[in-house]
Structure to design on (663 residues):
């Protein structure tokens, strides 16, 4: 593979001692240490790039360090579950510069006293290849390796290695895995184990069970990387204990079963099911039944496809004249580890999408709730135009995020109507957004951006925004009411968002406050929304205007401008008694709804959000004083100070979830 990539190969070293046991691993390292000094003296490299955690890499790092050659180590700081951990961390202590793949790995390197300024969080270089892999002829690759009768998503890729710290158990686990795969009866591509101690015994197990001649199995020693990508991307499941399963395969959302302790401590996406104690065939078989054929959101925990440009920039920044002696930053570690160097510092961010009745907005939102950049377009009227515009805007924003030094962790979408957040589906939209029922938003966005995607109702998003960035921060129980074109809301109970059994919780705008009130858009009448929404105020404003009772001195409505809620509010401020009465009635209806909420939920805070909130707040408080039980009259009602609750709430779904994803 190296030869195929046209590298200029200066030297070939044969250092692997056959034997596949502990002694052979030690002898291989020793043989490399004997041969490397002559090569390094001849090459005199400025920088030695060492990758990963294999024992042969340890020999290379040891030689370079003792010969005063600068070392750049890729993929340090990670945690797995074998001798690889010790080797990886040993290379870290020998290396002068570090390129890591995840935020946790960066934290580990800092905890290991490595110099903050010499650590680059770049992502995994293999993701640059994975996320750009677009082979439409993947079926020919599948047929070549598994047979002509195999379909996409209907086969398994198995890759299992020995655990050098517990060889006997890992051989037994491999035997159980093969038994489970035979029982599961699906076509399976089995790759031979690596050359670590114990691999020879694992191969014997394969041959004892006749895997190489079994009609359901294809046993191979090597698959070219480009073809392997397509095989795992379109597999029904991957099983084993390879780091590939917990790292690279997440880029495609392929289900993975991770067996045993070899990868314990690794960060994983939700596509990985861990079977730590794989000590029975039934456990493994049950895991296969649970995982096979599923499709998960694409995970970018280990990279976003831009690692190589970052690494090149980092390499170019290295000053070859600076002292070679390593510096260690001993505890206490600084609380704020962010560096003021553009090739090191990246802002953890989310793409937030707000689907409103009029506008479609996409924003890059930082961990602190800062809107780094916002894009706005009119919301198209048809499904096809709308979904294409969402994809286009998100792709453009993701590309811009790289230039703005923002690391996009995922996409959060706020939309009107009833939403199933577990599946990322809009079940039933509001009348303001047409052709938007039973719409799967997660799949097209996840497939296009290779990012995890979250979707929720705009009222719930407003509550999430308050919980993370607003006045609900740190509160156990509170309720948010949105006053805009419609009336919506969200309920936080015991720090968690309430969705309800059919995802219909917190439809607060449809609390009935009058048995004979005006018709509501939901088909009922007397709802809060029928009194206090922007649509309701617009309806009343038009009535007054048609009767020539809206405009007062100092007011005018241009002929080409539609009469709306803002005109009613302006008239009320200028002394129009009828407009004032309508606003008072609307505020009273909202206040009665809040009283019902106080009596039902007994929250510690009610937050009014949206453009109409400040116009209703005083009336709502008056109604609470007059109508509520004395035990809830002290509950505070406030106006939100968040400017963009829908976008911030959409972002919070991403930021709260992705930053705690360590299994």
């Amino acid at each position: 593979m190296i030869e195929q990539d046209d590298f200029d190969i200066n030297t070939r070293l044969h250092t692997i001692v056959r034997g596949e046991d502990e002694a052979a691993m030690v002898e291989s390292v020793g043989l490399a240490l004997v041969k490397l000094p002559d090569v390094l003296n001849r090459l005199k490299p400025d920088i030695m790039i060492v990758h990963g955690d294999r024992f042969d890499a340890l020999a290379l790092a040891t030689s370079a360090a003792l010969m005063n050659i600068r070392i750049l180590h890729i993929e340090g700081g990670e945690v797995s579950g074998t001798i690889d951990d010790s080797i990886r961390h040993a290379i870290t202590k020998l290396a002068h510069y570090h390129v890591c793949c995840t935020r946790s790995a960066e934290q580990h390197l800092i905890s290991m006293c490595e110099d903050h300024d010499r650590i680059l969080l770049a992502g995994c270089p293999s993701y640059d290849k994975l996320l750009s892999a677009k082979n439409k002829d993947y079926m020919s690759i599948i047929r070549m390796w598994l047979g002509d009768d195999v379909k996409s998503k209907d086969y398994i890729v198995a890759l299992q290695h020995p655990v050098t710290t517990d060889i006997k158990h890992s051989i037994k686990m491999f035997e159980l895995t093969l038994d489970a795969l035979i029982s599961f009866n699906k076509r399976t591509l089995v790759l031979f184990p690596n050359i670590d101690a114990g691999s020879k015994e694992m191969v014997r197990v394969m041959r004892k069970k006749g895997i190489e001649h079994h009609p359901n199995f294809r046993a191979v020693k090597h698959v070219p990387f480009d073809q392997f990508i397509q095989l795992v991307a379109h597999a029904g499941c991957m099983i084993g204990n390879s780091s590939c399963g917990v790292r690279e395969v997440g880029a495609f959302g392929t289900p993975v079963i991770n067996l045993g302790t070899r990868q314990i401590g690794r960060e994983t996406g939700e596509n990985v099911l861990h079977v730590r104690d794989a000590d029975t065939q039934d456990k493994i078989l049950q895991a296969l039944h649970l995982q096979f054929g599923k499709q998960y959101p694409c995970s970018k925990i280990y990279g976003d496809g831009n690692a190589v440009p970052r690494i090149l920039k980092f390499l170019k920044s290295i000053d070859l004249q600076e002292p070679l002696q390593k510096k260690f930053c001993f505890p206490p570690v600084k609380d704020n580890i962010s560096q003021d160097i553009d090739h090191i510092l990246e802002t953890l961010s989310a793409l937030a999408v707000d689907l409103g009745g009029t506008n479609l907005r996409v924003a890059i939102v930082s961990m602190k709730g800062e809107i780094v950049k916002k894009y706005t377009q009119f919301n198209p009227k048809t499904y096809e135009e709308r979904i294409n515009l969402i994809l286009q805007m998100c792709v453009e924003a993701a590309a811009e995020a790289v230039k703005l030094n923002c690391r996009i962790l995922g996409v959060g979408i706020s939309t009107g109507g009833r939403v199933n957040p577990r599946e990322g589906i809009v079940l039933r939209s509001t009348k303001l957004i047409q052709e938007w029922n039973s719409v799967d938003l997660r799949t097209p966005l996840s497939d296009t951006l290779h990012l995890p995607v979250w979707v929720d109702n705009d009222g719930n998003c407003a509550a999430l925004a308050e919980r993370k960035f607003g006045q609900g921060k740190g509160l156990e129980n509170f309720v948010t009411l949105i006053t805009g074109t419609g009336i919506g809301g969200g309920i936080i109970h015991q720090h968690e968002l309430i969705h309800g059994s059919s995802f219909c919780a917190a439809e607060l705008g449809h609390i009935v406050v009058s048995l004979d009130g005006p018709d509501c858009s939901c088909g009922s009448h007397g709802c809060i929304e029928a009194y206090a929404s922007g649509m309701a105020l617009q309806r009343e404003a038009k009535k007054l205007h048609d009767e020539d009772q809206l405009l007062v001195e100092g007011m005018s409505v241009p002929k080409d401008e539609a009469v709306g809620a803002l005109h009613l509010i302006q008239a009320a401020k200028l002394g129009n008694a009828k407009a004032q009465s309508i606003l008072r009635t609307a505020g009273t209806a909202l206040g009665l709804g809040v009283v019902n909420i106080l009596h039902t939920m007994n929250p510690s805070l009610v937050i009014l959000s949206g453009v109409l909130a400040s116009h209703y707040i005083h009336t709502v408080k008056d109604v609470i004083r007059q109508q509520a039980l004395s035990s809830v009259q002290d509950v505070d009602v406030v106006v939100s100070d968040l400017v963009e609750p829908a976008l911030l709430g959409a972002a919070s779904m991403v930021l709260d979830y992705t930053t705690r994803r360590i299994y």
Observations:
- Residues 577-601 form the longest helix (25 residues).
- Residues 471-641 form a domain with the Nucleotidyltransferase; domain 5 fold (CATH 3.30.420.40).
- The two ends are 34 Å apart (CA to CA).
- Confidence is low (pLDDT under 50) at residues 333-344.
